Predict the 3D structure of the following.
Amino acid sequence: KRPDFGESRYKLGRVFERIGEFEKALDQYVESLRYNPFMFDCWKSQVNLLNLFGHWKEAGEKCMEYRTMLKASPMYKEHLQYFSVLAVQSLTKQARELITCKCYEEAYAILQELIKIDAENPKLYTMLGECSFFSKKYESAESYLLSALNLNPKNDDVLVSLGALCYEQGKDKEAQDYFKKAEKINPVNPDLIANYRAIKEIAKCKPL
């Protein structure tokens, strides 16, 4: 295989991309990587183009594929880090789409893999908490949400989620405590307003 062919294919792909022939551009990027599988710029262009059109899953899978190749080559450490970040970004969006479609188990599986790459990312734990909550796995949901809160104590969305979780389990006092903490951080959080108003109305009718 000749790397110079790979470079030529890559440059042709860039031309197609600039004139809006995106499918042809992707085809050239695929061909380019057949000749030179370690061409960083080509992988980057391919993944960015897939992300541009919302193909989060395919973009994320390409990142994971490239990461696997790079792990065997210490000289590509910086490239590995770049595509690790890009994989998390792409597949997080895919997981969000799955949660929106109520495909909680599929989203959960993706997020579990991403945690292995980025164990300090509070957003991943928050989304894992959402999946567990909607699947009625409340202990698991609490564990993930507390992990997210530990990584980012000022995250009002996580506090609201913890409040909603407590409320769902009949822990009205704990729910109010979380909502109050969220209110101090961001009093105009729309989820907070909806949940807090509801629990305040209920609180008028029964002691906490």
Q: What stands out?
A: The chain has eleven helices and no strands. The two ends are 72 Å apart (CA to CA).
